[in-house]
Every structure is written in structure tokens, then in C-alpha cells.
Amino acid sequence: MRGAGGTSGGIGQFFIGLFMMCGGFYMLLNDVIVQSSFGMGMGLYGFAAMGGYYSITSGMIMIPFILGVGMIFYNIKNLLGWLLAIGSLAALLFGVISSIHFSLRSMSLFDLIVILVLAVGGLGLFLRSLQEAKQAES
Predict the structure, then answer these.
(1) Staple 129 to which of 13, 30, 53, 57, CB 3.0 to 4.6 Å?
(2) CA pair distance 111, 107, nearest whole angstrom
(3) Transmembrane segments in this chain: where (predicted)?
(4) How far is residue 35 from each of residues 38, 46, 106, measured CA to CA in Å?
(5) pLDDT-derived band of residue 95, with 50, 70 and 90 as boundaries?
């Protein structure tokens, strides 16, 4: 009978490692706080020109998008309309993603050590179960 992953590794190690890994990574991801500062007046991109600093806001990105959609509805084969619409959506998506902030919730050192031992120890045990078990030499 073959073990975990078709190898001669242990099925018990496989499931214990899987449960430890899932529990540890769940606890770790459950303690991450995700915040966003995205808004229509938020400056996404900035550049310096003529002695000043200018910022392109997310609301300004909607102008080429609206023009592109209008051009597409007027003529579906208009390449400039497609470029404006897709480029504006890509810039808006990049702006949303770049405005996300991740932080770790306040916890004790013991909690963090338990989470990391479960996650990384479970991953090690899980991967070890997928290796071929060493045969005892006779």
C-alpha cells in the first residue's frame, strides 16, 4: 500500500501536517488587518513638472474611461476607444491595489510563536510525508 502522494511516506504525518498547516495559516491570516485609503479624490499617481508637483486622482482616470466607452459604443472597432477604456481600468485597478495597507493585529509573543510553529511546522511535516520513506537496511 502506498502512502501520501503515492510515496511510501506516512499518511498520519500527512494529515497531522495538513491540519497543523491549515490551522496555523488560518490563525495568521485571521490576525491580519486590511485597510484601504482609496477614494475618488485620492491621488494615485504624481509627477513633478515646471517647478510644481501634480497629482492624478482616481476621479481624473474616469474621464478617459468615459471617453473610451463612448467611442466603443459609437464604433465597436475603434482601437483608441478600447485602449482608453482598458488602460483606464488597469490604472484604476492598480491604484486600488496600491492603496491597500496590511498590518498585523496586536498579539502576545506566545500567540505569534504558536501560530508560526503550527503553520511552518505543519508545512514541514506535510512536505516530509510526501517524500519516500527510507528503507531499513538489512
Answers:
(1) 13
(2) 6
(3) 12-33, 53-74, 81-102, 108-127
(4) 9, 22, 15
(5) confident
